[in-house]
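Contributing new records

If you add data, match the layout below exactly. Sequence lines come first and carry their own label; structure lines follow with theirs. Keep one chain per record. Anything else will be rejected by the validation script.
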Amino acid sequence: MENTYYQKQSNDIVTESIDGEVVIININNGSYYSLDGAGAYLWNNLIAGVSLETVVGQLALSFVGFDIGTHANQLVERLLQVELLVRSPEAPSDNGIELRGELPSSGENFALECYTDMQELLMLDPIHEVEESGWPHRQDGSN
């Protein structure tokens, strides 16, 4: 069976891990997302170049009796759908890539939370739209 690799859709996808949670921002559309637990572990390893099969295998060893593979594949499909991930055209050149981070305490959390409440703020371009009034500054002049 061939290993499957993924990468961030573009450099416009910004991600940060904080205390076991991953926050992902799509700068193109202003949406931001949250993953924790097994979902965060999966994301961090996929964008580091670890194959989906390797990550699922490690999680399956830790969470016996829970269908990790199905949940992981559903999450990956969702990440592809919202254009945070794309399938990598080839395997990373470094075969020595190791799994990242501590295994989560629960293998059951594969929920991708999506937030759009800050789209307007995130879509502002601070380099081009900063005026005397400071940032953030809407082009229409309202605050």
